[in-house]
Write the structure tokens for this entry.
Amino acid sequence: MECDVQLNEGFRFATPSDLEKILFFIRELSEYEGMLDQVVATEELLREWLFDRRVAHVIFATEGDREVGFALFFFNFSTFLGRGGIYLEDLFVLPERRGRGFGKGLFVQLAKIAKRLGCGRLEWCCLDWNEPSIRFYLSLGAKPMEDWTTYRLSGMELDELAARAERSPHVKGTGMMA
């Protein structure tokens, strides 16, 4: 889905010349979450996935000519709604700029994009311990999902599951329930 919505003043979409800034914000967020050691993203990977393959988008919140926050999102699809949605992967505002409306402004821009493109929802995950963010999300009117748990396959587990397809083109033959 193309994302050609005009953003409000003080917000802009990232361009390939912003790769260093995008990686900076990713690292700042991961440090805040205590996960800096898990970041393997590089400018080259971000260029490929954000600008060559265009599977995700980045918005910056700006103050003057300085980027003070970012949101990285992509489009997903709801079979129940029969339409696309936005999944917010990451949102981060520099600590010294928090409380000035930049985070809320990023959410407003995402909501604007969602509505202009006819999306049915905007969703994201939050770490359970992150009480400041949870309070912020609730203040926006967001509702926590009940009865849903996020699952993930990555690394070795993803490799092993994908290898089953290489060994046999028939999922039934791998011993998996289909």
In short: The beta strands are 11-13, 57-63, 66-78, 83-93, 122-124.
